[in-house]
Amino acid sequence: MAKPNYQYEKRQRDLAKKKKQEEKKQRKLDKSNTPPEETPDQPTEPE
Questions:
Q1: How far, CA to CA in Å, does 41 sit from each of 29, 31, 35, 38, 47?
Q2: pLDDT tens digits, residue range 6-43?
Q3: Which pTM value belongs to this model?
Q4: What is the DSSP string of 3-40?
Q5: What's the pLDDT score for residue 34?
Q6: Are the CB atoms for 44 and 38 separated by under 8 Å?
Q7: Separation CA 18–CA 13 (nearest Å)
Q8: H/E segment holding residue 42
Q9: What is the Cα–Cα distance from 29 to 34, expressed in whole angstroms?
């Protein structure tokens, strides 16, 4: 029976984690760069 390649599995986990963190970082940057837009459906003052 073949041995499991733990180094490969660990590397794959680390790459997936890094990718997820990069995506999260990009979303955070995009969110902070775009100012909140006012939607015409929602009134700004209560009636």
A1: 27, 21, 18, 9, 14
A2: 999 999 999 999 999 999 999 999 988 876 565 666 66
A3: 0.56
A4: PP-HHHHHHHHHHHHHHHHHHHHHHHHHHHHSPPPPPT
A5: 72
A6: yes
A7: 9
A8: none
A9: 9
